[in-house]
Amino acid sequence: MDIHERKREIVENLNQHNGIASMNYLCKRLYASRSTIRRDLISLEEDGIIKRAHGYVSLIVKSAKESPINMRQIENLDKKQNIARKADSLIKDGMVLFLDSSSTVCQLAPILKTKQNITVITNGINIANELSHAQNLTCFLCPGVLKHQSLSIVGEFTSAFIKNFHAELAILSCKAIQEKGVFEGDDSQGLVKKSMMENADKTILLCDTTKENAIGFFKTSDFDKLSCLISDASFSPSLQKILEEKIPKLY
Q: Is it the case that residue 203 has pLDDT exceeding 90?
């Protein structure tokens, strides 16, 4: 198990235990030495994901605001990769795509590298970086204001730039999904996603089931504005029923 896998396991174990665990517990669960776990915890602490105190480790409390990109990249990675694989068949050679800066959408990068003549317009530095060596596609990185935590570009310049393009698909994720719609933890991110949706033929939402328990204050979209939702599993019965009634395709 490499450092990235251990860090992901640490976060998942903390999530399963109300966000707190002892160093001894983590060593036993991951079959690793204290020195190895200590190095991993220092790295997670530097990333703003956990804090350490007196032999215990706790997750930094989440809020409706955006989480740091380093945290989102390792959270629920298996679910995000599963969702990306499901989206593969919907992306065809020659398509023009809007991609947001989310860690879930970033998992599409390996798939996009297998396609031909794809054009990508994104506000995600992380996504542009992943695609930087792909010679089979063209990637436009939106101008605007850099959000350091999420490595994304937002603002009026970003939305104005997006309006210069027309895409077949806007592929987006979200901070939270509730019975009233799709929500973001940041209004500037939400406005960029709205611009992408307005300038695309169809919108595909990539959203794992943990987002049902998340918090977001800025409404990005109603469900009837979505063409497709791809998730790792079914949501709660009440939400799932609404999704089935409002969204044409669910995967």
A: yes
Q: Where are the alpha helices (DSSP H) in the chain?
A: 3-16, 23-30, 34-46, 69-74, 77-87, 103-106, 109-112, 125-130, 156-162, 187-198, 237-246
Instruction: Kindly give, in sequence order, each residue whose CB lies less than 8 Å from that of residue 6, ignoring residues fewer than 6 positions away.
Output: 30, 32, 36, 37, 40
Q: What does the pLDDT look like over 18-44, one tens digit per residue?
A: 788 899 999 999 999 999 999 999 988
Edge-to-edge strand ranges of the sheet holding 218-221? 176-178, 181-184, 218-221
Q: How far apart are CA 155 and CA 141, in angstroms?
A: 13
Q: Residue 122: enclosing H or E segment and its boundaries?
A: strand 118-122
Cut 0.85: pTM above it: no
**CB distance 49 to 75 below 8 Å:** no
Q: Could you tell me the two tokens for 247?
A: 């969204």
Average pLDDT, the chain: 91
Write out the DSSP string of 87-111.
Answer: HGGG--TT-EEEE-S-HHHHTTHHH
Summarize the confidence of residues 91-112 as an average pLDDT.
96
Location of structure tokens 């029923």: 241
- On whether the CB atoms of residues 206 and 251 are closer than 8 A, the answer is no
Asked if residue 218 lies in contact with residue 190, where contact means CB atoms within 8 angstroms, the answer is yes
User: Helices 23-30 and 3-16 sit at what angle, rounded to 10 degrees?
Assistant: 120
Dihedral of alpha carbons 148, 208, 142, 157, sign:
negative
The reported pLDDT for the residue numbered 64 is 47
Cα angle value 16/124/201 (rounded, 5°): 100
Q: d(Cα 46, Cα 241) in Å, to the nearest integer? A: 41
CB 247 within 8 A of CB 226: yes
